[in-house]
Structures are given as structure tokens and as C-alpha cells.
Predict the 3D structure of the following.
Amino acid sequence: MYIIFFLVSFLASVAGAICGIGGGVIIKPLLDAVGIMSVSAISFLSGCTVLSMSMVSVGSAMQRKSIRIKFEVTLPLAIGAAIGGLVGKAIFQSIKNAFGAENTVGIIQAAMLLVITAITFYYTWKKEKIHTLRLKNMAVCIGVGVLLGFFSAFLGIGGGPINLMVLNYFFSMDTKEAAVNSLFVILVSQTFSVMQTIFSGNIPEFEFMFLILMVAGGILGGRAGSRVNRKIEAEHVNRLFEGLMVLIMLICVYNMYRFW
């Protein structure tokens, strides 16, 4: 199981760094499907992995300066995402306490992720025909960020396909530009999310070795994914992104059946 958790975190982080989806959107449903750990524990471990991966990926992007992080847009988004993340974590904990069953929470998470991923897949398929916006209002950026952070934290994915859809539609960013800026938003929101979990004392039970291996996988995967992102064309990033969304939807359907 150590090897499985490391490989999942590494490969998901490679794909997450290339596409800008963070990796948690792959790690969370995939490890839920394995079924050897609680939904809460996997959410926390996934968040820590995504945090380590995004640190490496954003640091690499800022060093090479080939694609600029649009701080005038992305910073308010990140602030909003941090706020939304705290709300999402609180609501997740409330629902968990109310139902008292991990399986019920798992079904809700899987169903929401399935719907969000399906909407994003449809948008990606049709985006060439969709007129995009160039929002600059700070209050609107923060509001959009709150929604991103809420879904990210509640679903325990640390980011996800919805980030790229939002950055493309509301801010007219192309695929590779959206990937880097999405990772910056994920970095800020996940930092606050993990800190909130630690300081609130809601850290779920798990074997510490899993955390070490998954964070290591996130760091190594972030480095590898950043290198690949520099070398491949945006069209290839799009194809990988679409393939991952199909995989995520299939896993979500399986998880809904398993948790039922």
C-alpha cells in the first residue's frame, strides 16, 4: 500500500503540474476507490500532497519567467479561494458530524465532483465557440475565488478542472497560462486549508508514513510535471486534460456505487 500511495501521488502530481489541476482531483477519488482509509484522512493527505506539489511547480514557474503569473487577477482569486476553503472545510465537518457516516459523505463528494467535472468537460469541448471575458474587478475576483476555494476544500481535491474553466472563461487565459495561475491559487488556498485543519485539531487518524510518501510524491511529481509542461504544446496539454476528466468521471461513478 505504501508503494500504491506513493505512485498515485507522484503520477497525479505530474499530471496536475502539467495541466494546472493540482493532482488532488485525481488522488482523492482514486484512493477513495481503493477503500483502505477514511474519506477524511484521504482528503487531508490529498491536500498536503497538493500543497507540496504546488509549491514546487509555482516556484519553478516564477524562476523560469516564461509564463507570467497575473498577480493583479490571481492574487484576489487566491485570497477568495482561501476564504472559501475555510468555509468548505467547516461545512464538510458539519455534514460529517450530522450524518456520522463516512460513506454518506463519500457519496456526496463523489456526486458533486462528477457534476463539476462533467460541466468542465463540456465547456472544454465547446470552448472554441464560447466568448470569454476579461474581468478585472477585485471584488468579483475575490467572489469567484471563494467559490473555487469552497468546492476545492469541501471535495478534498485541493483544486481541480473547474479552476482552468474559470480562468479561461472569466479571464481569457490560454491553457498553459491558466495552468500556472491555477497552481498559484491552489498554493495559497491549500496553505490556509491545511493550517486550518492543523490548528483546529481536526487532523484525522492515519499512519504517518503515508503522509511522508505522498508529500515526497507531490514534490517529485511537481518537479517532473513542470519540466514536461515547458516542453509540450498547449494542444497536448488540452488532450491530457480531457483524458483526465474522463478518468475522473469514471472513478466518481464507481465511488458512488461503492459508497452506496
